[in-house]
Amino acid sequence: MKNEKKVNLIKGTLVAGALLSVSALSAMPNSSSLFEYNALGSGAEVRTEILHTAASPFNLEAKCGEKTTTKAESKKAEAKCGEGKCGEGKCGGKDEKAKTKKAESKSKEMKCGEGKCGGKDKKAEAKKAESKSKEMKCGEGKCGVE
Amino acid sequence: MLLKTETYNQQNKFVEYCRNGKEISILGAVPERLPHYRRLVFNGFKDALETTFPIAFQYIDSKIWDEMVYTFFSSHKCSDPQVWRMPNEFVDFCEAENYGEKFTLPFLNDLLRFEWMEVEVYMMEDIEYPANISTTILLQSKIAVNPEHKIIKLEYPVHMEKPFDAVDKKGNYFLLLFREKETGRVQFSNLSILFAFLIENISAEEKTLEEILNDILYLFGINDLKMLQTKVFKFLDELKARGFVLGSLKI
Lengths: 146, 251
Hints:
The complex is a heterodimer.
Chain A: H1 2-10, H2 16-20, H3 22-25, E1 37-42, H4 43-52, H5 71-80, H6 95-104, H7 106-110, E2 116-118, H8 122-130, H9 132-135, E3 142-145
Parallel strand pairs in A: 2-3
Chain B: H1 5-20, H2 34-52, H3 54-59, H4 62-75, H5 86-96, H6 99-102, H7 108-123, E1 133-134, E2 143-145, E3 149-154, H8 163-166, E4 173-179, E5 186-191, H9 193-204, H10 209-220, H11 225-241, E6 245-249
Antiparallel strand pairs in B: 1-6, 2-6, 3-4, 4-5
Helix pairs in contact in B: 5-7, 9-10
């Protein structure tokens, strides 16, 4: 009977599965973990936190004079060399900037699903950032803008 | 727009070629030039996925990532006409293909879902804010919250840890995402199961805060109402300061 009432209370909720498990129901009443929450910040902050704590322990083990390459770095190089965004140009360097942009402003620039080739029109970028509705929802990218 | 059957067939052939690279003959096309189109389409695809899932892209082994992306590209027929939604199909595809198990990445589904949710909340349609509210949080009222939000349940704390560090921490994690009204930025909060239950019930707008607290007392076996109220009010005040809780709904 008691359980039936509990089931009715949580029916259809996201927490239902977790609450119905024996361990959760027998969780210590007044347990402090029940009242925990963390404000993790914006998407960019969450990403930066996770991506920036990526320091590889292998860095410390580098031999004298040896260049260490983190997985992320080698991956970046691999992903961007030869074929840039949208498949056009953008060879070699500059991916530091691109990566930062990806990590920090995914929501501002890249969510349209299309890359950005060629130019770096600051005006256009600012416009993009401030008016997602104008540019981001169309599903179209921006290529070759100078 | 209706296409001539032949045009439709030629377009389909071209799309198939872009996907799988198998040689075909397309009317009027110069065979040597076709690979460039394929490369362009694939790179656009790849870039969209790397941008939407920067954490997964960084931490998952390049070969595995490339295999996942290429298999998706070559075998999945995307159904959504909006390109920005394509990564969501990638999430579903990876789940359906059971890549988490196949590549021994138990956190994969959670990680992709978590990264995708930011896009989904950021791009979600505007929802009208409740109009008739008082800014005070009252026990006897229903509480008004920012309607542009979602709560998801995760098994691994991929929103707080590096993915491979999260592997040993399987459990129940609840993540609240909401879009700031002024900036459009998506904010994240990790919630305990109790607070997730609270927010879910508040946003359903069916019960007053007092009624929800009574349910919580019963459901979680808490016997100290005063303590519960203090903790909940502190929590709601903080969410109010962050622009998620708006106040109380006036009847």
